[in-house]
Write a structure and sequence with these properties.
about 40% helix; mainly alpha; elongated
């Protein structure tokens, strides 16, 4: 880890030292015109070699899902209507 850090710091120091000795860029005279001419030529050549427009068929129509078929559902069984015994039924037995 120490070696990687040392190499990184050394490379950054050398890069800063090299870039600090460069002469400043002076864009005077016809330098700007030459730059614009190169930009224009690049735009023309780039648009000439660009791929042409490709026409594609329209997307397929959306898929329609029909509603499910009707299903007969039988009604629930009838409710029992009659006497309800909530206690033990009374049997008629003879007692003496």
């Amino acid at each position: 880890m120490y070696a990687v850090l040392r190499i990184t710091v050394t490379t950054a120091a050398i890069g800063v030292a090299v870039l600090s000795f460069n002469a400043p860029a002076n864009a005077g005279g016809s330098d700007v015109g030459a730059g614009l001419l190169g930009f224009g030529i690049g735009a023309v050549v780039g648009s000439a070699i660009a791929p042409q427009t490709v026409y594609v068929a329209p997307p397929p129509p959306p898929v329609y899902y029909a509603p499910p078929p009707a299903v007969y559902v039988a009604p629930p069984p009838a409710v029992y209507v009659g006497p309800a015994y909530y206690r033990r039924p009374h049997y008629h037995t003879h007692r003496h």
